[in-house]
Design a protein that fits this description.
The chain is of the alpha+beta class. The chain has five helices and five strands. Strands 2-1-5-4-3 form a five-stranded antiparallel β-sheet, with helices on both faces. InterPro entries: Roadblock/LAMTOR2_dom (IPR004942).
């Protein structure tokens, strides 16, 4: 009986997807939802390709835009914004230009923050055994890709 119910539900889902999803996407889903979906997909692809454990995107005021695989993303975004802001001011005071990328190393892994555009940042978390050069380069590349998104300009 359970198999029959699952089969029926699966068939209904296919019918719904084929017949109504296109109409719903055009009619009911706001443009911002589609943009956030693109951002989340890009972030997920980044996690898979770099084997990072988690990532988040935040604005310069510490507001979380999106995160993957993080508990307490809002708190981590606020703390990350404080670190990034202080680092930015430090570089400006030393007349070394503006902050582009920040690397932190701990006993349990690495954290790489990269400016996307304006005051938006991506922060990636990875275990120590990962390839640091790949992570840093990939973080910069995904930042360029994300900067083309209208929500992050």
């Amino acid at each position: 009986m359970l198999i029959k119910i699952n089969t029926c539900l699966g068939q209904l889902a296919l019918i719904f997807e084929n017949e109504y999803q296109h109409k719903l996407n055009l009619t009911f889903l706001p443009k911002s939802y589609k943009i956030m979906n693109e951002i989340t997909t890009t972030l997920n692809d980044f996690l898979v390709s770099t084997k990072s454990t988690a990532a988040l995107i935040l604005n310069g005021k510490g507001k979380l835009i999106t995160s993957l695989n993080l508990d307490y993303g809002d708190s981590i975004a606020a703390m990350s914004a404080a670190i990034l802001s202080m680092s930015e001011k430090f570089l400006i005071d030393l007349e070394k230009g503006s902050l582009k990328q920040l690397y932190l190393k701990s006993a349990e892994g690495v954290i790489v923050g990269n400016k996307i555009s304006g005051s938006n940042f991506i922060v990636a978390f990875s275990k120590e055994g990962s390839n640091l050069a790949l992570l840093m380069r990939s973080t910069e590349e995904v930042s360029v890709e994300l900067s083309k998104n209208s929500l992050l300009k």
